[in-house]
Amino acid sequence: MTRVLALDAATEACSVALLCEGELISRSVEAGRDHAQQLLAMIEELMAEGQVSWSMLDGIAASIGPGAFTGVRIGVSVAQGLAFGAGLPVAPVTTLEALALQVLPESDRAIACLDARMGEVYWGCFAADAQSGLIALGAASVSPPGSVSLAAAGGAPMRGIGRGFSAYPELAARLRLEIDQQAGQALPHAREIARLGALRLAGGGGLDPAQLQPLYLRDKVALTEAERAAR
């Protein structure tokens, strides 16, 4: 079986998971700062708990965003540094994929939605897939909540998940989605990143660490005064 270390620092939560011989152990903290130190400390704990050395790993699964710019950069940089040092391939996984996988065991279709700030959300639609875990039904997007669409699902029932729905309650109502409190507060987690990363590594989808690229979706981090006034 594939042995994978996974990490995510793209949102308010910072998490690490170790998948080894089908067993999954993880750590998570929601603090919003010092993600680099927290990641490294949790990785050290997990490697010791799992009694796994770097030479025993098959690769590192890295969250590439979308999410907070600083958090995404930290996660990608830490994954690259660890992979370079250990001579391991990396498997990129998006935060939206990791979110969607949390509910896809219960549904064939899911829409993942994160609060992107500045009056926008990150979102994407996905379908369950036995071989790859999930497949995207369209490109990951950033847009105002009013522009989110379920057209890519082809009319199939959808499950919604992510804090984008709690930030904009009208979004779920417009899309006719029932979002329970747990799903509305959900954030990406390294557990699902490990599972998807293991599938990608086993299928030959590992990358050289130098090829790992963050997924930002948006080039700017703040609105101008005129843009704020318009909104």
Can you offer a commentary on this structure?
The chain has helices at residues 35-49, 69-86, 95-101, 163-167, 169-175, 181-184, 190-202, 225-230, and strands spanning 4-8, 13-20, 23-30, 59-63, 90-93, 109-117, 120-129, 133-136, 141-143, 159-161. The chain is of the alpha/beta class. The protein folds into two domains: 4-95 and 188-211, Nucleotidyltransferase, domain 5, CATH 3.30.420; 96-184, Nucleotidyltransferase, domain 5 (2-Layer Sandwich). It has a five-stranded mixed sheet, with helices on both faces. Strands 6, 7, 8, 9 and 10 form a five-stranded mixed sheet that branches. Helix 2 (69-86) links the parallel strand 4 and strand 5. The longest helix is centred in the middle third of the chain and has 18 residues, at 69-86. The chain is globular, with a radius of gyration of 17 Å.
Cα distance spanning the termini: 51 Å
Q: Output the strand order for the largest sheet.
A: 3-2-1-4-5
Uncertain regions spanning at least 5 consecutive residues: 220-231
Mean model confidence by pLDDT: 91
CATH topology of the largest domain: Nucleotidyltransferase, domain 5
- Classified in CATH, the superfamily of the largest domain is ATPase, nucleotide binding domain
The CATH class of the largest domain turns out to be Alpha Beta
Provide the helix percentage. Answer: 25-40%
CATH architecture of the largest domain: 2-Layer Sandwich
Give a short account of the largest sheet.
5 strands, mixed
Radius of gyration, CA atoms, in whole angstroms? 17 Å
Which geometry do the CA atoms define? globular
Helix tally equals 8
Strand content: 25-35%
